[in-house]
Every structure is written in structure tokens, then in C-alpha cells.
Amino acid sequence: MYPFDYQRIDTQQALSAAQQDQRGQTGKQTSYLAGGTTLLDLMKLGTLAPAVVLDINGLAHDYGDISWSGDELKLGALVRMSAAADHQHVRTDFPVIAQSLELAASPQIRNMASLGGNVLQRTRCNYFRQPGWSACNKRQPGSGCAAIEGVNRKHAILGVSDHCIAAYPGDFAQALIALDASVDILGANGTRTIGFDQLHLTPGTEPERETILLPGELITAFHVPTGPWTKRSLYLKIRDRESYEFALVSAAVAMHLEDNAIKDVRIALGGVATKPWRAREAERQLIGNRPGLPAFEAASKIAFAGAITRPGNRYKAELGQQTLTRALLQLTEMEI
């Protein structure tokens, strides 16, 4: 580890830091610290080296609550993953959210990690996390992508580019994007709210830009609207082992069934894309159809029609289709 400045800050200090960052006045790389389950790992590895670490846990009195209004679930960004997963309304009315949190990491990490930090976690690509590898456009723009011709078994097949194929690793984000969540962002000019599907970026020619957040901006809350599909929802995660492992493929799905017809359906895919991935074409294929294996298999093929594979991760296209089909079948069998 290397020397760095550490400060605990309140909301006003956070805004001041954001203003300084946006104006380029600090001259130092700063990072926010909540649970620290991603940041500290990357600092120890030498992948990230912020000169200033700003501890935002003092903001929990403003952004650390869960509220339920009947038509919307609001999750503060400093709510811990375990607290959200154990919340009564989350478990009963938004099971896909509870399951995505329960299936992530270990109990110890879920007790520490914040929801805001979780959606901003960095890729698990070894070429990014190990500075000894020089070719990583995400860490060193213009250096190349070692994973394209290297070991890429766990890498993305959707949303990739010639500059990066690193997979987004999170679970919770798939539930949020499937349920049309929105996110509050605090910055130098106050608070703005955007659709969660606008937060993350595909790599394109700039893999180093992973989100639309400006320097110094903070996520403060998530808003998840209630709908006839939220109770009939689930998260299915396929991985190499049953605990403390990232997804090879995952599916966050939600459905509104009426008179044995699919009135609405939401599909998000994890482990296979460079960002939280909404499979909207597959959704359109299903709406109006009767639920069943033929319809689900057809939609699953559409969801992966744009996959770009390499020798190491070619299996993900087939595994992804099977995973999505299985998730949709399980969804129709739910008793709500």
C-alpha cells in the first residue's frame, strides 16, 4: 500500500469536493469510500491509486434508509446489501432484488458493501486488476486489450468492442435495470435523476469511461416503481460454484401474466455483457404470447443473437440461452 490522504466528510463537504473536482482545482485523484469492498481491493493490487480517499459514511443519515410508498420502493445508496436483502417489502414485493443481493459475495461482504458502491464495482477481468499486464485499455487507454487474444472464459459476449471485452460483474444492477429503476445523482449543481439504464456505458472506443458520472458526483438513491410484474420476479445465477463466485451467466426476469398470456415481461442479463444488459428485443418477442417452452426458447435465441464470442467464452451464448429459458419457466411456476 502507498500513502494517501483520508478524510471523513458530510454532505456539504461532498458537494464542495464535487465542485473542486469538476473545476479541476484539486489536482489530485480522489475516490469515495463507503463499504470499501471494491476500492480497497484495487488499491492493494495497485490498480487504483487515489491520492485522496473521502469517507462518505457520515452521509448515511441522509442516504441510508429504505422507504416504501406503495407505488415505489426507494433504496438509499448507503443502505448495506444485507439490509436491503432482508427488508420485508423487498423480499415479498421485489424478490428479484432480494435474490440478486443474497446471491452476491459472502455474508461478511454483504454486511459491509453499500448499494451505491455495488452498482459501481469494477470488472473482475484479471488483465485490468493486475497492473503487471500492460495491455488494458480500461486501465491504460490506448494500450490494447490483452483479453481479446488471451484468457477470456469469463469475459463478455454482448456490448463488446475491439477495445474491451471485460464483463460487468454485478448482480444487483441486473435487477434494477429489469425493473426500470431510476437513480438520484448528487453533484456540484444539485441532484439529478436519470433512468438506471443510462448510468453505465458500453466500452466503445473509450473503455476507461464506465458510467456517465461526472468527477465528484455521488449516487444517493435508487427508485424502483411497483408494477404487476414486480412480485412475479426472480434472479437466476449460474456460476462455477454455489457461493462467493461471480456469474458466468445470470438472468433477472419479471413478468405480468393475465388470462394465460404475457402482458408484460422484463429481462436483464448478467455475466455476459460489458454493462447491465436489458434484452428488449426478447421482451417484445414474448409480449402477447402464451407462456411456455417454445416461446421462451425463441426469445432466448433473440436475446443472444448479437453475441460476439471468442474461443474461450463461446459456451456463454448457449449457456445464456438455457439460463434465460430456465428463468422464464421458473417465473411462470411462481405462486404469488
TrEMBL record:
UniProt entry tagged with the keyword Iron? no
Q: Do you know which SMART domains this protein is assigned to? A: CO_deh_flav_C (SM01092)
Q: Ranges for the FAD-binding PCMH-type domain?
A: 1-229
Specify one Pfam family.
CO_deh_flav_C
The UniProt entry, under PROSITE patterns, shows: FAD_PCMH
Keywords per UniProt:
FAD, Flavoprotein
The family database entries (InterPro entries) matched by this protein are listed as: CO_DH_flav_C, CO_DH_flav_C_dom_sf, Diverse_Substr_Oxidored, FAD-bd_PCMH, FAD-bd_PCMH-like_sf, FAD-bd_PCMH_sub1, FAD-bd_PCMH_sub2, Mopterin_DH_FAD-bd
In terms of superkingdom, the source organism counts as Bacteria
The protein in question is named Xanthine dehydrogenase family protein subunit M
